[in-house]
Amino acid sequence: MTTTAPHAVTTRLSLPSTRQDPWWRTAVVYQIYVRSFHDSTGTGTGDLGGLLQRLPYLRRLGVDAIWLSPFYPSPQYDHGYDIADYHDVDPRFGDLDMMSRVIARAHALGLRVLADIVPNHCSIEHPWFKAALAGAPGSPERALFHFADGRGPEGAEPPNNWRSIFGGSSWARTTADDGTPGQWYLHSFAPEQADFNWADPRVGDYFDSVLRFWLDLGVDGFRIDVAHGLHKQQGLPDDPHAALDEITGDPVNSAAWNRPEVHDVWRRWRALTDEYERRDGRARVLVGEIGVLNPRQVALYQRPDELHQSFFFEFLRTEWDSAAFHDVICRGLEAVTAAGSAVSWVLNNHDMPRAVTRYAGGEPGGQPGDTALGERRARAALLMMLALPGSVYLYQGEELGLAEVVDLPTSALQDPMYHRSGGARRGRDGCRVPLPWHGSAPTYGFTDATAAWLPQPHWFSSYGAAEQDLRGESTLNLYRAALALRSAIPDLRDGGLVWDEVPDTPDGVLSFRRGGLLCTVNCGPSPVPAPHGATLLLSSAPEPSGDKQPAESAAWWVV
Ligand code: GLC
């Protein structure tokens, strides 16, 4: 791990004035992974009633909005990202009335609500897919998906060479009632998630009605699952690089991902949300999960008539290194502001090993790493992120300083990624373990059942929200303090970012200004002198001092 100094730069990146900007440009949005947040019914699985109870906690945390991972009826092969009914709530999580109560209570507390929407694929239990299976090859029912004959003798080989992101071919073969093998259908993820055919106009019309349904219920916007997916290249040709999709888990097959036609979908959705906005004056937001690696390509999704936002995942993928942070922040700001939008920073979500573990050198299924160091760094990264221009997405549990649960027993693992890769990829269960709310033994206030749906580790006893509430230097209280300052100090939200020149900045330290506020991040292993003439406002280190900035810490200063 290096801690080289940032490159000498004089970059001045200015953002449009944000005084009249809509809320989402600078919002802090908190992701709720519903099944792991709080269980109010004693099933061992979190639900909307649990969320309703905990909304005051989120209000006190100081976030502006919540994003709910899918809560729709689903057989849960991919924990709800396989939707069987886009117009309802899964009984495991509640019902439409409960969802309305969540929205109303959240709004009363000043929190906006985003729903997760999954337009690339649906569950094989969706009525359209059931009808397609029952329909004949070439039927209108099958045209809503990608059905094709197999290759080779008796069509026994998949129609093309595409690989699923979760492992294996991205085609599954159908079987007729009498056991005869039939056509194949495309699934970019698990076989239980069938890809829609967006070239069929009925699909676009259907999703318009889905958006309207939830907007009418009161949501403030949507997080869009795999928004770089949807359209496929006509004819579904083989792709020489298709195998990389499986190896890296990244969407590299240019025939399957990031097709130019998908931008028409986002223009259509933007027009629809704009219509709602004009009607009642409430700004709505569409935030895309764009798994494309090139930031300039990602920025195209955020042109003024397309999505409002997309997650800037390159920041999450950056190792603990001041020069690397400097470069990735520049890339994000340049690419996204050039498109006229703002960056959405993110360090954690339900698909990635938690930041504490990444910065600790640990990995799921392997060693935990030095989690005390990882937590120190994750606290510093939070202050860095919250001081950047744009919006921020947090993932439940990061405010508690949770590390990845790296040692879940393999018998407990549920992620299709683990099972589809034959265990080669450990999967994402370790960041989805239900939260510790209080107490010294499982289930740490998460559920009245004897066990949560994933086993919680014994070290959760030091991480309960109630216990952290009482410790001034806890990670929970750091998040609260930082979020309160971010909303109280206009310089942290408005205007541009100015980098400090390298000659004044110690090695391994990142230093930038937002108006009268200075943020310094010491990525190095030793304390460094405090910036001259600056007054400490907030430090990520539990033991700040006035004249030195501790190792592996970030600080906000008034200058
Ligand atoms: C997105 C979701 C992930 C899901 C996948 C398939 O990447 O974030 O959890 O498995 O899409 O829907």
Tally of separate domains: 2
Structural class: alpha/beta
Mean pLDDT: 93
Q: What level of helicity do the residues show?
A: 25-40%
**In percent terms, what proportion of residues is strand?**
15-25%
Characteristic terms for this protein:
single chain; 559 residues; alpha/beta; TIM Barrel; Oligo-1,6-glucosidase, domain 2; eight-stranded parallel β-barrel; six-stranded antiparallel sheet; 14 helices; 21 strands; 27% helix; globular; disordered N terminus; binds alpha-D-glucopyranose
Written description of the protein model:
The model is unreliable at 1-19 (pLDDT under 50). The chain is of the alpha/beta class. The protein has two domains: 19-120 and 201-480, TIM Barrel, CATH 3.20.20.80; 127-195, Alpha-Beta Complex (Oligo-1,6-glucosidase, domain 2). The longest helix has 19 residues, at 262-280. It has an eight-stranded parallel barrel with strand order 2-3-4-10-11-12-13-14. Strands 1-15-16-17-21-19 form a six-stranded antiparallel sheet. It has a three-stranded antiparallel sheet with strand order 6-8-7, with no helix packed on it. It is built from 14 helices and 21 strands. The structure holds alpha-D-glucopyranose. Alpha-D-glucopyranose (GLC) is lined by residues 78, 81, 118, 189, 225-226, 289, 350-351.
